From TrEMBL:
Catalytic activity: oxaloacetate + acetyl-CoA + H2O = citrate + CoA + H(+)
Gene3D superfamilies, sorted: Citrate Synthase, domain 1, Cytochrome P450-Terp, domain 2
Taxonomic placement: Bacteria, Bacillati, Actinomycetota, Actinomycetes, Mycobacteriales
Presence of keyword Transferase: yes
Recorded metabolic or biological pathway in which this protein acts: Carbohydrate metabolism; tricarboxylic acid cycle
Name used for this protein in its record: Citrate synthase
Native species: Williamsia marianensis
Length: 375
């Protein structure tokens, strides 16, 4: 049997066909289904985009109303998990929120009628994916409030996903401008090609496992600092720069120490990250000294990177301004990456549903490079 040796990281290797979306790195463009993702973020609601990912088209008004009612009814955490939720919330450090979410989602799967994808029909698969997605922000907000010494808030049926997320974290109904800013961030980060977490979700789905198992695996991949775990680290970098006020010197020191500059560069984009452009606009709209400072820092760091790597342009990525926007909207720093996960659940579930239509397990090979067999 002949084998193909793939490049490190499977770079530029096509492993599946998808109708969910595409990322064109050389153009600085990405799409959801047949629409520009950035156009959707600028003009649609999160619920409309969520419907698009599930059903492959934008909803008409009646379909949207039904979808909103259906998904809001799925937000509540099963009562059986209340004691586990409190135990898990108080364990570990504040930046282990995705690990806590994985644990609670696994328990939720055990207390509900989740069915393995292999055995489930299309309607059941969709139902399980909607439940996992709708429940996620409620779980995360509850975990955060318990750690802060406050009681979790029940989800409100009169609030959108973005509004309810901010309300669940802060206990206050958010100002419309801030709720819309978070909603646009959520839309812009729903999906982004075959990244590590999405691929992980599809590998697990290909085994016929249930939706919750697949999203828990995706969360594990997502938690890494080279993937979803970067927005808070990018804001940490802005804090370091603020101490001296010299972004150029800071960036040069990072390069000299062979440290990665979080919030800059991307595995796919060779031009501006369109998500970063959108979030810069949102940050500017919200205003404030942090946004102004971040825009100045971006220019200085990009200039340093251009000098250091003249043949490989490196620009601000989605994580750089994500933290600025979320901070401006009152999201605590330890909840930046969990906010990212709230949106990405939609994309993971869409990929899980698509993968479930293919009944073949994903089973690549590895090349053995260890010592020879002892005979």
């Amino acid at each position: 049997m002949s084998v193909m040796v793939a490049p490190p990281g499977l770079s530029n290797v096509v492993v599946a066909d998808t109708a969910i979306g595409d990322v064109r790195g050389d153009e600085g463009f990405y799409q959801y289904r047949q629409y520009s993702a950035i156009d959707l973020a600028r003009t649609k609601t999160f619920e409309e985009v969520w419907f698009l990912f599930v059903y492959g088209r934008l909803p008409d008004p009646d379909e949207l109303d039904t979808f909103v009612v259906t998904t809001r009814a799925l937000r509540a955490i099963p009562a059986e998990l209340s004691s586990l939720l409190r135990t898990i919330a108080l364990a570990g450090n504040e930046r282990q929120m995705l690990a806590r979410l994985r644990t609670v989602l696994s328990a939720a799967a055990a207390t509900t009628s989740v069915v393995p994808l292999w055995d489930a029909g299309p309607d059941q698969r969709i139902a399980d994916s909607l439940a996992a997605t709708a429940m996620t922000p409620t779980i995360l907000a509850a975990l955060h409030r318990i750690r802060a010494g406050e009681d979790p808030l029940p989800p409100r049926d009169d609030l959108s996903t973005a509004e309810n997320w901010l309300y669940g974290l802060t206990g206050k109904e958010p100002e419309p401008e801030r709720a819309r800013a978070i909603e646009q961030y959520l839309i812009a980060t729903v999906d982004h090609g075959f990244n590590a977490s999405t691929f992980t979700a599809r590998v697990i789905a290909s085994t016929g496992a249930d939706v919750f198992s697949a999203v828990c695996g995706a969360l594990g991949a997502f938690s890494g600092p080279l993937h979803g775990g970067a927005p808070d680290r990018a804001l940490d970098a802005l804090d370091e720069i603020a101490e001296t006020g010299d972004a150029t010197a800071w960036a040069k020191a990072q390069l000299a120490g062979r440290s990665r500059i979080m919030g800059f560069g991307h595995a796919v984009y060779r031009t501006n990250d369109p998500r970063s452009d959108l979030l810069r606009d949102i940050a500017s709209r919200l205003g404030g000294p942090l946004a102004e400072f971040a825009i100045d820092v971006e220019k200085d760091v990009v200039a340093v990177l251009a000098e250091a790597y003249p043949d490989r342009p490196l620009y601000a990525n989605v994580e750089f301004y994500a933290g600025v926007v979320m901070d401006s909207c009152g999201v605590p720093r330890q909840m930046f990456t969990p906010t990212f996960a709230v949106s990405r659940m939609v994309g993971w579930c869409a990929n899980i549903l698509e993968q479930a239509e293919d009944r073949k397990i994903i089973r690549p090979s590895a090349r053995y490079v260890g010592p020879p067999v002892v005979r």
